[in-house]
């Protein structure tokens, strides 16, 4: 599988980006729904490879897997009115008159699950999932209308130790797929940085949340547009200048001078970087005060991973959200986590030449060289499968030339030939496709 073929399922093909379905023609139906993806077997193998690395990184740190329905109550997301995500819901009324939506993210579903067993779950809760999520938004490189998102979360711990654990999970994954700290950086900050700055200016509550949403767009909109949106929220020129100054800081010492000497934000950031040094992952990290994350529920440490060349969207992002449960009517429980989409990382792996060649996984191909020997070939295939081998039985009349091409295409290790004279003697011929050696074996001993 060549790199440009292997990422087809992660990229929206040109024909899909501009497709508008006006009538049910065959070509319209075969194109699928705009913004969604098909996974052909070669792409499915690559998706499974990616997901296996997600599983391995989470499990290596003691996380357990969970899942929830893709269909959720619309109210779970519209509680956070004003955020961009509420305008991107795939929502509708079901046959029972209930307002429902396809989940756009996993964290509210996880919060609902934790709240449903409030007090009964032993803490800390260390869970992960790889759900499919849906958002109706403009399709672009690394962003479709559906994607899979690796979510890793810790509930029940107040300290930055949990945040450091999440960063360790990320680095473990990046190293496992062949990426280096020269390829990407995890930018780290704390929502309390902006909270302290705006608090000193008398800005808090809903205005603070709306300000975070605007600031999160700084790398997507021109400066004058950001300044206008901040002004629309009531921020004067002096406030905007102070916000810009602080958000431009890349050094913790500079930040500690700008904020109060007893700044909680600075203390938490220093503690977090010290813990990450113990993990040996600080070469992957950088302090960047401009990282605030747009969702209103973030309360502490926040982080995003970006490619060093800044050619792609954020690879992943997350942070602490200690007050989410109270917005859903429950009792708050400290929590921190991240979401990691499957599309941007595949773009980066493709750019870095790290897309693996993944054969189908067949170990043996069994072919009868006479139509009358098909039942015998089925018996041979059955014996091999019972021994734990992965076997592809040739079900129709094919020549040996086709069988060799098929074996090369699927990466099979052996070609098992059921031939008239050999079968009469109770034997089959096996060709080792790596060495080219051929030998006859007793059929009963397979």
Question: What topology does this entry show?
Answer:
Blueprint: H1 3-6, H2 14-17, H3 26-31, H4 41-59, E1 64-65, E2 71-73, H5 75-78, E3 90-93, E4 99-102, H6 107-116, E5 125-129, E6 132-134, E7 146-155, H7 161-176, E8 184-190, H8 191-200, H9 205-215, H10 223-232, H11 237-247, H12 252-258, H13 264-279, E9 285-287, E10 301-307, E11 316-320, H14 324-327, E12 335-341, H15 342-351, E13 364-368, H16 374-386, E14 391-393, H17 400-410, E15 414-418, H18 420-424, E16 427-432, E17 438-442
Parallel strand pairs: 1-5, 8-9, 13-14, 13-15
Antiparallel strand pairs: 2-4, 3-4, 5-7, 6-7, 7-12, 8-10, 10-11, 11-12, 15-16, 16-17
